[in-house]
Amino acid sequence: MLLRKDRPLSVPLILVISLVGVGLLVYHFANIREEWVVKRFLEALKAEDYARAYQVWGPPPTYGYKEFLADWGGQRGYYGVVRGYKILRSETRGSGVIVVVEFEHLKKPVPLWVERKTHQLSFSPF
Length: 126
Known about the structure:
Elements: H1 10-29, H2 32-46, H3 50-57, H4 65-72, E1 85-93, E2 96-103, E3 110-115, E4 121-123
Helix pairs in contact: 2-3
């Protein structure tokens, strides 16, 4: 049926369309695991569970809990209380992923860095 003489290109055309479709899906969902890590972090902040958010952040020894609270600690923190957010986009860069987050209460989006191997969060260097 697909290999009729009047349609010699139908099989290659179906293969090309399928490959393009698979490529688009892979491109769209390439950073989904890193976006989930950021979402877990933001949900912990939203619930004001700063200890859990700190664990999800996976801080290095140089970034203590006090420094974390100075950045993310609700009313006292630099970024304020997280009530709502939206993950705008993610972009692979080297060994990690930049996940750009828009917060309801902030004017500018905040880029966060997720290391691919360890899923450790930090502020984006870019």
